[in-house]
């Protein structure tokens, strides 16, 4: 049996363990790369999609059906794929048949990435890890989504260097969902600095006749 065939078996088993109402489970899913100048995609082993507080959240599982324990290179490759498709490391879960070296476990831990061993893995245990990943997203949304709306001024902050200017193609004042989606896109595209601190972002309409600023 080829290595790919063995990997596909593990991916299908992991996917079947979490096919429950409210979750969409897909295997060998191609996701678009969010960075880079060339339009391309990367394949993830198992993609689980759910809605959290009205926002779509994706959990990626990397499945390794190999005869040896996973090393740091395996963790680094998985982390690199997550970064390329714009999914945080905390929303990645590695599943290995043979376990992990001490170094690879440390490499996953400092990223906040979850690791599981398939032997003895139950649907309940897998569900607990996926729910923990979903809960971390709820915390991030609640703690990071303070939005201030200012009175409309035609040129308010457009040329102000203190603001990060962002355009939204919305005739009416955008909803919280639209704003959070655009904030995410700006962050993974490195428009919003990664440093912890306070960042001022001015959302402007694409249509100059629209009467809103945020």
Automatic annotation (TrEMBL):
<dbReference type="InterPro" id="IPR007560">
    <property type="entry name" value="Restrct_endonuc_IV_Mrr"/>
</dbReference>
<dbReference type="Pfam" id="PF04471">
    <property type="entry name" value="Mrr_cat"/>
</dbReference>
<protein>
    <recommendedName>
        <fullName>Restriction endonuclease type IV Mrr domain-containing protein</fullName>
    </recommendedName>
</protein>
<feature type="domain" description="Restriction endonuclease type IV Mrr">
    <location>
        <begin position="37"/>
        <end position="110"/>
    </location>
</feature>
């Amino acid at each position: 049996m080829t290595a790919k065939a063995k990997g596909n078996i593990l991916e299908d088993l992991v996917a079947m363990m979490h096919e429950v109402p409210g979750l969409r489970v897909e295997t060998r899913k191609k996701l678009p790369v969010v960075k880079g100048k060339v339009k391309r995609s990367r394949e993830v082993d198992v993609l689980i999609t759910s809605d959290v507080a009205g926002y779509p959240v994706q959990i990626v599982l990397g499945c390794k059906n190999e005869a040896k324990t996973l090393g740091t290179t395996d963790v680094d490759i998985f982390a690199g794929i997550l970064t390329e498709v714009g999914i945080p490391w905390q929303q990645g879960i590695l599943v290995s048949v043979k376990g992990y070296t001490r170094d690879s476990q440390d490499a996953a831990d400092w990223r906040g990435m979850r690791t599981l061993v398939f032997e003895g893995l139950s649907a309940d245990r897998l569900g607990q890890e996926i729910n923990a990943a979903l809960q971390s997203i709820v915390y991030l949304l609640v703690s990071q989504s303070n939005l201030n709306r200012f009175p409309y001024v035609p040129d308010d902050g457009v040329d102000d260097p203190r603001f990060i200017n962002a355009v939204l193609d919305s005739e009416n004042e955008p909803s919280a969902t639209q704003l959070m989606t655009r904030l995410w896109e700006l962050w993974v595209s490195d428009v919003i600095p990664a440093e912890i601190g306070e960042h001022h972002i001015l959302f402007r309409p694409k249509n100059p006749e629209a009467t809103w600023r945020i």
